[in-house]
Amino acid sequence: MIRLEARPAPSRTWSVLSPVVAIAITVVVAATLFALLGKDPVRGLEVFLVKPWSGTRALTELGLKATPLILCAVGLGLAFRANVWNIGAEGQFLVGGILGGGLALVVTANQIPVNRWAFFPLLVLAGALGGMIWAGIAAFLRDRFNANEILVSLMLVYVADLFLSWLVFGPWKDPRGFNFPQTMNFAAETAVPRLVPGMRLHWGFLLALLAAAGMWIFVHRTYRGMQLLVGGPAPAAARYAGFSSRQALWTTFLLSGALAGVAGALEVAGPMGQLTPHVSQGYGFAAIIVAFVGRLDPLGAVLAALVLATFSIGGELAQSRLGLPSAITGVFQGVLLLSLLACDTLIQYRPRWGRR
Amino acid sequence: MGAKVNEIALLLAATLAAGTPLALAGLGLLVNERAGVVNLGAEGMMAIAAVTGFAAAFLTGNEWVGFAAGAAAGAAAASIFGWLSLWLYTNQYATGLALSLFGAGFSAFVGSGYVGKNLERSVVAGIPGLRDLPFLGPALFRQHPLVYLAIALMAAIAWFFYRTRSGLVLRSVGESPDSAHALGYPVRRIRMAAVLAGGALCGVSGAYLSIVYAPMWVEGMIAGRGWIALALTVFATWRPARVLLGAYLFGGVTMLQLHLQGMGVQVPLQFMSMLPYLSTVVVLVVISRDPLWIRLNMPASLGKTFHPGS
Fold it and tell me: CB distance from A133 to chain B under 8 Å?
C-alpha cells in the first residue's frame, strides 16, 4: 500500500522534474499506441518527435507553430498563478484575429498604401485590442456580477467562433471567392515581415520571445508582478499587503487576453493571409497545457510551447507519413497534461510504503 | 388554427428532446457536486461517450448497447479524474479541464473512422394510449424512452438526496468532508462513487446525442453542452428539479432558434446559434449576482481537495 505524506516544504526538484517525467510518460504512451495501431514504434516516434526538428525548414515551421502557443501561454500562466481561471484564450485569439484581419482587409479593399513595418505595430495593437475586449467581458461579468469566469470565458469562445463564421460566410466574404467562406487575400504589405527568407517564420516569433522575457521581468522583478504571484496561493496575505483580488482579476484577464489577441492577429496576417472559419487550430486550448507544462512561468512557456509545437507538427506528419489521423496530437496533449498533474503531486507529497 | 397548434406541439416535443441530454449530464454533475466534487471534464466525458456509444450502436445495431457503452466510457473517463483528484490530491479544476482537453483529442482520434457513417433513426413508439391524445400526444408522449428516463432519474435523485440515509451521507460529504471523515465515513470512496455516477450519466447524455439526437458522429458535436450542463447546476442552485427545468429551458432556447428560422425571421444563422451560449452567460450573471445566495446553496466543500487524516 502506498500512501502520500505531505512534505514539510514543496520539493523544488520535483517541480522541475515533473514536466520531464510527464513528457517521458507521454512518449511511452505514444510508442505503445503506435505499436497497438500496428505501426513500428521507433519509426512512429521518429516521425513524431525527431522529424519536426530536422532541417532549417522544419525548425522554422516549429517556431511558427510555437509563436501563438507562447503568446497565449505566457498570459495564461500569469492568470493561473493569480488564481484567475481564464479558459477562453481561444475566443480572445479569434477576436484578435478578427480585428487584425479586419484591419488588413480595410487596407486591402481600399488599396491604402502602407509600409510593411508601419503596418506591423498597428496589426499587433488591433489584435491586442480584440483580445482585451473579449477578455474584458469575462472580467467585467466576474467583477460586477460574480459570474464564474471559467464558464463565461468558455461560452465566449463559442460566440467568437460563430461571429467569425458569420463574418466570413456573410459581410466579409470574398465576392470573387467562388462562394467559399473566406475573405479576399490580404495585400502583401499587410503580411507580417518574414524572419528567414523563403520560410514562413515571421517577426511574430521574436515578439513572442520578447513578450515572454517581458513577462518574466514583470513577474519576478517588479513589485506589481510579485503581488500577483502572492495573490494566487495566499489571497488573504495579498489583501493584507493591500493588493485586491479585483485588481488581479482585471490585470491578468486583460494581459492574457491581449497576448492571445496578438497571437490571433499574427496568425491571420502571418501564415494565413486571409480570414477563414478555421483561424485557430485550438491554439488557445493547447496553450493551457503549455502554461501548465511550463510551470506557469514565462520562460517555461517557451520551452513547453516547443514541445507542444513538436506534437502538433508530429501529428500532421503522422497523418501524411504513417496514415494515422492527425487528431492523435490531441490524445497526446491530453495524456501529457493528465500525467503532469499526476507527477505534480510529488511536489507537495512524498510516497510512503506500508500501511499507516 | 389546427396547423398552429400542431406546430406548438412539435416545438414542445423538440424542446424535450433537446433538453434531455442537458438534463442527463446536469443531473450527473449534480450528484458529483453534491458530494463536493466539481468535474470540469463533462465536455470531454460526453465526447468520449458519444463516440464510444456511437461505435457500439453502429457495430451491434442496438442503441441500448450504445447507451450502455456510453455510460461505461463516461464512467471510465471519470475514474481518471477521480483517481487524480481524490487520491493524488490534484486540483479539481485543472484536472477536469485536462479531462476535457483529453476527451476532445481522444474522441476526434477514435471517431475519425466513424465520420460520415449513419445510424438508422430509431423508431419511437411513444407511450401507448397517451400518444394518440390530441395536442398532448405529439407534444409529450411520442418521445424516445431516455426522455422519460431523465425525468424518472430526476425524481430518483431527489428521493435519494432527501429521503435516504445514503443521500444524506453524500450531501454531508459535500458540505463537510472533515466531519464525515471524523464520523467514520470513507469520504474518498463516497466521492469516487459520485464521480463515477456523474461520469456514467454524462456518458449516457453523450451517447444520446450521437445515437438519437444527431444521429451521427462528428468532431466537436458536443458543442459546449457539457459546459452548459455545468452552468445548469449553478442555475439550479444544486437542486434536482431545477436542473431538469433548466435543461428544458435551454432545450427550448436551442429549438427556438430553429423555429424562428422556420418562421422566416431574418437573423443570420450564426447569431441564432449563439443563443444557447449567450443565454448561459446571462443565466450565470443573473443567478450569481448575489454571492450570499450562491454561498448559501453551494455545497460548502465544492472544488476543495480533501486530505484524510489531516
Answer: no
pLDDT in tens, A25-64: 999 999 999 999 999 999 999 999 999 999 999 999 999 9
3-state DSSP assignment of residue B295: helix
Amino acid making up residue B170? L
Identify from A98, A331, A346 which residue to disrupt to test chain B contact, counting B C-beta atoms within 10 A and taking the largest count.
A331
CB contact under 8 A, B288 and A328: no
Report the amino acid identity of residue A75. G
Q: Please state, in angstroms and rounded to a whole number, the distance separating the CA atoms of residues B183 and A4.
A: 22
Domain covering A2-353 assigned CATH 1.25.40 in the classification:
no
The partner residue sitting opposite A331, judged by closest CB among B105, B269, B294, is B105
**pLDDT tens, residue by residue, A9-30:** 898 899 999 999 999 999 999 9
Chain A partners within 8 Å of B284 (Cβ) = 141, 145, 147-148, 151-152
Comparing alpha-carbon positions, the chain B residue that sits nearest to A2 is B87
ipTM for the predicted complex comes to 0.94
* Rounded alpha-carbon distances, angstroms, from residue B281 to A130, A147, A260, B296: 19, 8, 21, 21
- Identify all chain A residues contacting B91, using CB atoms and an 8 Å cutoff: 341
Distance from CA of A132 to the nearest CA of B (A): 18
Per the CB < 8 A criterion, the answer to whether A352 and A3 are in contact is yes
- The C-alpha atoms of residue A324 and residue A321 are separated, in whole angstroms, by 8
Cβ pair B98:A337 closer than 8 A: yes
Query: What nine digits make up the cell of B112?
Result: 475519425
Q: If DSSP codes are grouped into helix, strand and coil, which group holds residue B223?
A: coil
Pairwise CA distance, residues A70 & A206, whole Å: 11
| Chain B, nearest residue to A333 by Cα | B102
Do residues A156 and A95 lie in contact, with contact meaning Cβ atoms separated by under 8 Å?
Answer: no
With beta carbons less than 8 A apart as the criterion, state whether A97 and A257 touch.
no
Chain A residues whose CB is inside 8 A of the B44 CB are 334
List chain A domain ranges.
Answer: 2-353
| CB-based contact A153:A138 (threshold 8 Å) | yes
A87/B contact by beta carbon, under 8 A: yes
Q: What is the pLDDT of residues B210-242, one digit of tens each?
A: 999 989 999 999 999 999 999 999 999 999 999
What is the rounded distance in angstroms from the CA atom of residue A343 to the CA atom of residue A24? 11
Domains of chain B: 2-297 (1.10.3470)
CA distance B159 to A353: 42
State how far residue A195 is from chain B, nearest Cα, in angstroms.
32
Nearest to B208 by CA among B181, B229, B239: B229
